[in-house]
């Protein structure tokens, strides 16, 4: 199963899903960093108004085969869009991506 983690640097989980610069996507023996298509809308339109990019994130995840998201925070609009697409959301407190991916904390 492929999993996506919002990140600004590929090492730490971003504080906010929609404002993260990238998504760290791993699974099936591969890892890659993909730009967050929602970030432009979230930054330009302000909190709660950047819903145009939600669809782009869901489509990106479908294309990449992402079935689960690990995140520190996600807004309600994005949460609904992800859940409607059948993407599981797991809230995490650990901020170190290596620890999350390899299960050591």
Set down the secondary structure blueprint:
Blueprint: E1 2-7, E2 22-27, E3 30-35, H1 39-45, H2 52-64, E4 66-71, H3 76-84, E5 88-91, H4 97-102
Parallel strand pairs: 1-4, 4-5
Antiparallel strand pairs: 1-2, 2-3
What does this structure look like?
With about 100 residues, the chain is α/β, with parallel strands linked by helices. Helices cover about 35% and strands about 25% of the residues. It has helices at about 40-45, 50-65, 75-85, 95-100; strands at about 1-5, 20-25, 30-35, 65-70, 90. It has a five-stranded mixed beta sheet with strand order 3-2-1-4-5. The longest helix has 13 residues, at about 50-65. The model is unreliable at about 45-50 (pLDDT under 50).
């Amino acid at each position: 199963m492929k999993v996506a983690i919002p990140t600004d640097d590929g090492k730490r989980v971003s504080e906010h899903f929609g404002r993260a610069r990238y998504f760290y996507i791993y699974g099936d023996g591969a890892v890659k960093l993909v730009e967050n298509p929602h970030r432009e809308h979230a930054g330009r339109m302000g909190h709660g108004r950047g819903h145009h990019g939600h669809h782009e994130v869901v489509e990106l995840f479908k294309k990449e085969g992402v079935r689960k998201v690990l995140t520190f925070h996600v807004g309600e609009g994005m949460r609904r869009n992800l859940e409607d697409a059948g993407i599981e959301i797991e809230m995490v407190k650990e901020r170190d991506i290596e620890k999350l991916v390899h299960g050591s904390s």
